[in-house]
Specification:
- With 247 residues, the chain is of the alpha/beta class.
- The protein is built from eight helices and seven strands.
- Strands 1-7-6-2-5-3-4 form a seven-stranded mixed beta sheet, with helices on both faces.
- Helix 1 runs antiparallel to helix 2 and helix 2 crosses helix 3.
Length: 247
């Protein structure tokens, strides 16, 4: 019975999210026609995320180790265990922000409008694609657009409960090169409400805990410190993860 209810909630949640995306799409389309509309594009997807959250019963409790500075440019790094993670960051991030994600999202009917405009697609199996993506991200960061990235490179579908996977190097080198702070974010137990896309275990409404660590400065670091920085961010994120099974 519980399994049936979880899968029913997942079907309902997908229906709500798809329906709201369809309602918002004409407004997305207009805002996406020019870079001048990109900030509006962010505001629209933030509004969509709030509505989706309330209507599906997924609520997010944010705990800040230290308040973030409004309008400051950051690189957000987080673990990635659920399709809800995008919604969470649309609510969490302020002002000008953009995502970097796998290029397969260019085929997603709900997300491709963002990855053809404001967000950055990357083929992680191609060094050339990765180089171009991080070059573009660097330009966006210089223009004051915070970057949201999941340094694991995607959701690992082989471990349940999820286990934090090793990080890619790109965001840490970029943070040092651009002299920007990294904000480690632990999406502590989001997977308990919806793991991956929810197709295997369904989904459950409730409160998800998100822990936002104190920004890590890179002012005194060089490229030679990138691996050490990567390990530090990994340990911080991992320290707040809840990894007990809860089906």
């Amino acid at each position: 019975m519980i399994r049936l209810l979880k899968h029913s909630h997942r079907i309902y949640s997908v229906f709500v999210i798809v329906s709201l995306s369809a309602v918002f799409y004409p407004f997305y389309y207009v805002a996406a026609q020019s870079p001048k509309g990109y900030l509006t594009l962010n505001r629209l997807r933030k509004a969509n995320s709030f509505l989706s959250s309330w209507l599906t019963g997924f609520f997010f409790r944010f705990t800040f180790e230290q308040p973030l500075v409004k309008d400051q440019t950051y690189i957000y790094c987080a673990n990635h265990t659920s399709n809800l993670d995008i919604m969470i960051f649309c609510i969490l991030a302020q002002g000008k922000f953009h995502f970097m994600g796998k290029d397969a999202l260019l085929k997603n009917p709900m997300l491709k409008i963002f990855f053809k405009t404001i967000d950055i697609p990357v083929n992680r199996d191609s060094n050339i694609s990765a180089f171009r993506a991080f070059k573009k991200a660097g330009e966006r960061l210089e223009a004051g657009w915070s970057l949201i990235i999941f340094p694991e490179g995607g959701i690992d579908g082989s471990h349940y409960p999820p286990v934090l996977q090793s990080f890619k190097n790109g965001p840490f080198r970029l943070a040092i090169e651009k002299n920007l702070s990294i904000v480690p974010v632990s999406l502590s137990d989001v997977w308990k409400k919806m793991w991956d896309d929810g197709s295997k275990y369904g989904s459950t409404p409730g409160i998800c805990d998100i822990y936002i660590h104190q920004p890590v400065e890179t002012t005194d670091l060089t490229i030679m410190d990138a691996d050490q920085l990567k390990e530090r961010i990994f340990d911080l994120i991992n320290s707040k993860l809840v990894l007990h099974d809860h089906r």
